[in-house]
Every structure is written in structure tokens, then in C-alpha cells.
Amino acid sequence: MEQTLSIIKPDAVANQTIGKIIERFESNHLRIAAMKKIQLSQTQAQDFYAIHKERPFFNDLVQFMISGPVVVMVLEGDNAVARNRDLMGATNPKEAEKGTIRADFAQSIEANAIHGSDSLENAKNEIAFFFKAEEIL
Ligand code: CMP
């Protein structure tokens, strides 16, 4: 059993597609082990995406992630990291396979509806960034 971190980004929260996205997880045997709606601060967004700080899109990414509330979740299930990535689809929704979350709900590579951890190691760090152990049930 693995755990992974998922973030429903400000575009999908503003578009009222939280429920439709969560339905994708639950109907694909990913259990919601923790969930909260939060407004990221600039510092939190910079820290969360620190791995991208040298990339040309970093400042825009941070501004986008603080443009409105997000929903952060811990998803749990067999092979959760990879299965969540499959459900999400490619980072750029124009390249995302039909039927994936990004193909169906994202608008652009920046406003791409959802974030998901890309490895088990990053999942552990990203989960710890947002949740205390006792908040994960
Ligand atoms: P995410 O999975 O949250 O991880 C980093 C984010 O940077 C990515 O999704 C995209 O939303 C965002 N981003 C913006 N521009 C680019 C780009 N040119 N290449 C990759 N990611 C980008």
C-alpha cells in the first residue's frame, strides 16, 4: 500500500470541479486518507516547488498556485504514485491522453488542474509538507 500527495489547483477549485476530480480517485480505488482546502502563502508555494526554482516558469507557477485556494489530499492504494500519475495525464493537457483528469479539466500547462507526486520518495516529503501523521487516517 502506497500513499501519494495530490493537489487540486486553483483553476479546478475555481471551476467547481473538486467533486468530479475526487470521483476519479475513488472510482479507481485510490482512497482519500487526508484532505483539506487551504490558501497557500507565497513562501509555502516557493518551498513546495523549490525543486523548480531555477526554471523560467517558477515565478509564474508560484503566482498561479497562490491565486486562490487549493485542495491537498493524501491518496492511498496499491501502486498509488504511478496510478495517480496515470489518472492525471501528461503535465501539458494538450498532450494528456483522453479520459485523464488533465485532458478533461485542465486549460494549460500552468493551469493544469492537479499536481501529483512523481516518486515514492517525493510523495513522502510532499505529504509531510502538508500533513501531520495524526491527520492521515
Ligand atoms: P506540477 O505537476 O504541479 O509540477 C510543476 C508545475 O509547473 C507543473 O505541474 C506545471 O503546472 C508547471 N509548469 C508551468 N510551465 C511549465 C513548463 N514549461 N514545463 C513544465 N511545467 C510547467
Structure commentary:
With 137 residues, the protein is of the alpha+beta class. It has a single domain, classed as Alpha-Beta Plaits (2-Layer Sandwich), CATH 3.30.70. The chain has 7 helices and 4 strands, in the order E-H-H-E-H-H-E-H-H-E-H. The chain has a 4-stranded antiparallel sheet. It is globular, with a radius of gyration of 14 Å. The structure holds adenosine-3',5'-cyclic-monophosphate. Adenosine-3',5'-cyclic-monophosphate (CMP) binds next to loops. This is Nucleoside diphosphate kinase. It is found in: Cytoplasm. Major role in the synthesis of nucleoside triphosphates other than ATP. The ATP gamma phosphate is transferred to the NDP beta phosphate via a ping-pong mechanism, using a phosphorylated active-site intermediate. InterPro entries: NDK-like_dom (IPR034907), NDK-like_dom_sf (IPR036850), Nucleoside_diP_kinase (IPR001564), Nucleoside_diP_kinase_AS (IPR023005).
